[in-house]
Amino acid sequence: MTVIELIEACSARLSEAGVSFGQGTTNAFDEAAWLVLWRLQMPLDGLDDVEELEVDDTHLAAVHALIEQRISTRQPAAYLTGEAWLQGVPFTVDARCIIPRSLIAEPLAEGSIDAWLSDRTRRVLDLCTGNGSLAVLAAMAWPEVTVDAADLSADALAVARLNVDRHQLADRITLHQGDGLAAVSNRVYDLILCNPPYVNQSSMDALPAEFNAEPALALAGGADGMDFIRRLLQQAALHLTPAGVLVLEIGHERPHFDAAFPTLDVVWLPTSAGDDQVLLLTRAALTALPSTLPLSP
Ligand SMILES: C[S@@+](CC[C@H](N)C(=O)[O-])C[C@H]1O[C@@H](n2cnc3c(N)ncnc32)[C@H](O)[C@@H]1O
Questions:
Q1: Whole-number pLDDT of residue 295
Q2: Do the Cβ atoms of 131 and 97 come closer than 8 Å?
Q3: Quick check: CB of 177 below 6 Å from ligand 1?
Q4: Which atom of ligand 1 is nearest to the CA of 129?
Q5: What residues in the chain have per-residue pLDDT under 50?
Q6: Which of 18, 149, 176, 296 could be joined to 135 by an S-S link, Cβ 3.0–4.6 Å?
Q7: DSSP 271-282
Q8: How far is CA 12 from CA 2, 17, 20, 52, 68, in A?
Q9: GO CC: one term (predicted)?
Q10: What's the confidence (pLDDT) of residue 80?
Q11: CB-CB contact of 247 with 113 (8 Å)
Q12: What local confidence, expressed as pLDDT, does residue 292 receive?
């Protein structure tokens, strides 16, 4: 059996077993290719070069065992392989942190945040950093900045430490543990990136097993998904320089976001998942936010 035939067979097996995607891949073929190439120790981005190679029986058995493990445990592929990729950059991953897939990585890599920055941009905060992926991508995108990366979870920060060291960025990224912006006391930033927990409770109740394998702290945002974001938007202006901006991911929670912040002046940043999942707020927009907001449902 060739590599491509093996991937197609594994893809069919994953589909038939009804596993869920969305934690690094979006479909059965890509998930199968990831697991097969990883198990065969072949480059994940080099399928074209190896697809006609024959796979021997020993390696076939090893691949089938991995696919069956994926199906029987419903562990996401990244937890089985210990690695995930974002914007072509590899990150160490384990069950202590959510699997990196933030849409903020797209405007960051494509340069669509740069219009709000300047040659004086120096300090960036990645709030809710998880495994540190956005902090690492920010440090790579803007070589002149230093980055603070904060999270409530000591477990997630332990994985972030692995990634900061892996990418040799310890001199430019500092990790902080704490609850929201309290983790950085009174520091101010030119840019705050934040992919917070924002999944509303009814979506949490319906999560597939693969997503329940991730830390609930990383996902659950309360009844309407806005618990963390309400606190953040009330406090963020205090932590921004006069021209500073906040870039925030809200995923599919636009209706809840609009209900919670009906008067907010929002700039939406387009992503591959849609034009209303990542937004930018200037300090002026945050300052204009009324002190009394609609209550959560
Ligand atoms: C959606 S994950 C984002 C992780 C990472 N930035 C990424 O994009 O992959 C949200 C993160 O927020 C953290 N978190 C949850 N509540 C928090 C809080 N009150 N203060 C700080 N971090 C919090 C979780 O531990 C988790 O790592």
A1: 66
A2: yes
A3: no
A4: 6
A5: none
A6: 149
A7: BTTBSSSEEEEE
A8: 15, 9, 13, 19, 12
A9: ribosome
A10: 98
A11: yes
A12: 72
